[in-house]
Known about the structure:
This protein has helices at about 10-15, 95-100, 280-285; strands at about 5-10, 40-45, 50-60, 65-70, 75-80, 85-90, 110, 115, 120-125, 125-130, 140, 155-160, 160-170, 180-190, 195-205, 210, 215, 230-235, 235-240, 255, 265-270, 285-290, 300-305, 315-320, 325, 335, 345, 350-355, 370, 375-385. The protein is mostly beta strands.
Amino acid sequence: MELNRRTVLAGAAAAGVAAGTLGGTAQAAPAHHRRGGRPVREPFGTLADGTRVHRWSLENGGTRLHVLSYGGIVQSLEIPDRHGRYADVALGFDNLDDYVSSSPYFGALIGRYGNRIGGGRFTLDGTTYQLSVNDGDNSLHGGAKGFDKRVWDVEPFTEGPDTGLHLHYTSADGEMGYPGTLRAKVTYTLTRHGEWHITYEATTDKATVVNLTSHVYWNLGGEGSGTVEDHELAIAASRYTPTDTGLIPTGERARVAGTPFDFRRAKPVGRDLRAGHEQQVRAKGYDHNWVLDKGVTETPEHVATLREPRSGRTLRIATDQPGLQFYSGNFLDGTLTGTGGRTYRQGDALCLETQHFPDSPNHPDFPSTVLRPGETYRTTTVHSFGA
Length: 387
Ligand code: GLA
C-alpha cells in the first residue's frame, strides 16, 4: 500500500510558498481584532536551556488561533457559538512551565510517529530499530522527547485571503531511535471561512517511518466547562482496530456494528461509554483507531463531525489519512489546571487524531508508513467550524 500523495522532491519544492517573515522582531499587538492579517508574535517564556518560546496569534474568518513555537502547540483556539459568543475550545495552559512539566500532549504536533509502536521496536529493510520507550514497553507519540517537546522554527505568511504559519523541525538521524534525518514542515492555515488546515510534509535521507498528527483536546463548550459526554460525535467508519492490554492493535479490523464503537450515526459520546465492552475497560473509555471507510485518499474527505448541543458549536474534520484515533480524555484526572484556571477531569475533552494506524510498522497489512529518500510525505487535515 502507498502513503497518500507521495510526490518526488522537485514537485514538493515547486509547491513551496513564497512567504514573508517578521524577521526577529517581536510584535506584541494582540491579534484579536485582526482579520486575515499577518500573524503576530509575542514572548511566551524561556526554556531551561535559554531558548525563547514565542506565541503566535492568527485570526481569519471568525477563528482565532494561538500557536507556540514549542511543540507547534495550539495553545488556544477560539470560535463563536450560535449567538456569536467566543470560547476557547482547546485545552491548554497559560504558561510554558506547565507545558514542559506536565502536558499530556495538549494541542501539540506529534512525531515522528503518532500513537504507539509495540515493544518500541520495528524492522525495516532487514534492520531492527529500538525506539525510545515511554509507555510501558511501548513507544508513544515519538518517544520520550517527541516533536511535541521540540522548538520549531516558525515563519508567518499571508497568501491571498489566507493567513498562516509554516513550522519547521529537523529530526536528526537516530533521534529517539528512528533512522534517517527527517525534515518536517507543518503548515497551519486559517482560511477566510475560518477553516483551520494542517498540511504535514517530510523528507528523509534514509528509509524511515513517519506518522504525524495533531493532539488538540476539544471541548466545544469551552475548555474547563466540564464533561464532553454530551457532545454528539459521528465517525465515518465501519471498523476499528481493537487493542491488547498495552493498547497495541491486535491486527484485527473489527466491525463497529452492534458495539459501543458504532458512531456511524451521530450519538452522544457518553451514551455507550459505560457499556462494559472489554475494549473500553482496557482503555478506560475510547482510545482506539477507527478504520475510515474512505481509506487513503488523494485529497481530504469528510470523516467526522462533533457537535456541542447547548452552544451549537460544530467541528467537522476532513482528511486524506486512513485512520482516526478517538480518545475520550481517559487519563485526565483532575491534577491539571488549564488556561482559564479550571481543573481538567476525566472526559473533560476528547481528541480526534487523523493518522495512519497505530503500530503500522509491525503490521505489514496496514497502510504503509514507510518513507524513503526521494519521496515526500504529504498529508492534509481540514477542521471546519460552525454554530
Ligand atoms: C493518545 C493516546 C492515549 C493517550 C493520549 C495522551 O490519544 O492514544 O492513550 O496516551 O494520547 O494522554
